[in-house]
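User: Could you go from structure to sequence for me? I need the amino acid at each position, not a summary. Structure tokens:
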């Protein structure tokens, strides 16, 4: 028998009542007792609704396995915060049910539960108790909590004297020491300075080895680096649920297409014509995810070295050339093209584009063009990488995407001289001499 999920959501819906004015809210409040009085007097009592309904969530169903990290993504107003509050028990569903197994700790609006008149020490003890620790357990762990927060003598000062960063550090420190089974995180990783952010991320990765995480945020780098799956919410409904890389890329493509006013992802694309050249390494573009205006399309591409050879394995550090065959349906002015190299998790590692180098060029409608971009491949760690390619018009800062193709290229790197980092910078010079004094 399979293990029960840590989180189970079944046909979950949440509606809010929206009142045009405070007077309408008062009328709605007084209506039930007024109706009861009229009925006792034998008079008809017509009920009326003085509000409209806003459905923040509609018929949402999913499960999160124990030990899994699930991302919840979507634009502002999609229903993400409502979902997290329902999971925490601070909101009641309008329909459906939520089941969460084990102790839940939530990082929602860090520090919002603090009493500003109490000291940091008193608030830490109080929050630990709210999260399920006994008074004895909270006092025993208090030194570890305060050491993690690292706010110095401010721990004995009222929280109203804290900066927002200090309050967040203390709140995170409490969460990190309450032995939660399920952690719910809402845009709470960018707390404090860079040193403290790294401490939080290290703790979160340790927690992932023993607990379940629901991560809500707009940081796609964190989604790709931390989560196995992602849930995309749109207008309160599930748009997509699946592997984090696939869902995040689909979300990025959809939002980018909407911002540019072009065809959404999945729009029909013309099939690529037969290759116009016999050079080795050319391949038709057959991307898993693509979008664009359709005014021009990348039909074939290849990655080769400066001599025109496409190696099966790259070492890193050599000059590379990205070649694209582009079929424009309309005239395209100010072309710009490039690629983004990603690691196995889908996290961007390196990017290169033509910038303003082709600013005075134009592509004629119906006439295939060959675009070439030369760049130096970084000294990467050995492994397999994929590249998304794009062709647009405009400038790097403001442009219209005509064709974006995810994971259109693959390359393997075997670097015998790499220093262990994902991307290495070759030394420009070094010196050694006697130190004076």
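Assistant: Here is the amino acid at each position, in order:
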């Amino acid at each position: 028998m399979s293990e029960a999920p840590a989180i189970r959501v079944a046909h979950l819906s949440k509606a809010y009542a929206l009142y045009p004015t405070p007077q309408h809210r008062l009328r709605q409040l007084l209506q039930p007792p007024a109706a009861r009085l009229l009925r006792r007097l034998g008079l008809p009592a017509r009920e009326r609704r003085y509000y409209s309904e806003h459905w923040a969530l509609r018929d949402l169903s999913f499960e999160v396995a124990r030990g899994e990290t699930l991302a919840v993504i979507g634009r502002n107003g999609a229903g993400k915060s409502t979902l997290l509050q329902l999971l925490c028990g601070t909101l009641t569903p309008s329909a459906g049910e939520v089941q969460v197994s084990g102790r839940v700790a939530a990082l929602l609006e860090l520090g919002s539960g603090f009493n500003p008149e109490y000291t940091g020490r008193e608030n830490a003890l109080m929050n630990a108790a709210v999260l399920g620790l006994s008074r004895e357990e909270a006092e025993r762990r208090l030194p570890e909590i305060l050491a993690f927060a690292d706010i110095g003598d401010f721990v004995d000062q009222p929280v109203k004297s804290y900066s927002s960063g200090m309050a967040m550090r203390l709140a995170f420190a409490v969460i990190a020491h309450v032995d939660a089974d399920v952690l719910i995180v809402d845009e709470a990783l960018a707390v404090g300075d860079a040193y403290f952010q790294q401490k939080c991320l290290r703790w979160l990765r340790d927690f992932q080895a023993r607990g379940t995480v629901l991560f809500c945020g707009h940081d796609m780098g964190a989604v790709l680096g931390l989560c196995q799956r992602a849930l995309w919410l749109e207008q309160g409904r599930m748009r997509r649920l699946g592997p984090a890389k696939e869902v995040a890329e689909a979300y990025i493509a959809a939002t980018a297409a909407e911002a540019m006013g072009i065809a959404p992802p999945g729009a029909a694309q013309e099939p690529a014509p037969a290759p116009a050249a016999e050079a080795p390494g050319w391949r038709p573009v057959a991307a898993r995810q693509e979008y664009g205006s359709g005014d021009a399309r990348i039909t074939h591409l290849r990655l080769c070295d400066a001599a025109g050879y496409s190696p099966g394995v790259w070492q890193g550090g050599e000059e590379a050339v990205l070649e694209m065959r582009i079929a424009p349906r309309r005239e395209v002015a100010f072309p710009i093209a490039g690629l983004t190299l990603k690691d196995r998790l889908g996290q961007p590692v390196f990017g290169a584009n033509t910038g303003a180098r082709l600013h005075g060029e134009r592509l004629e409608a119906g006439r295939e063009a060959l675009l070439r971009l030369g760049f130096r491949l970084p000294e990467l760690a050995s492994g397999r990488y994929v590249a998304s390619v794009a062709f647009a018009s405009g400038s790097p800062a403001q442009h219209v995407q005509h064709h974006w193709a995810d994971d259109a290229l693959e390359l393997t790197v075997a670097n015998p001289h790499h220093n262990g980092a994902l991307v290495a910078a070759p030394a420009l010079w070094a010196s050694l001499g006697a130190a004076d004094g």
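One structural detail worth keeping in mind: The radius of gyration is 28 Å.
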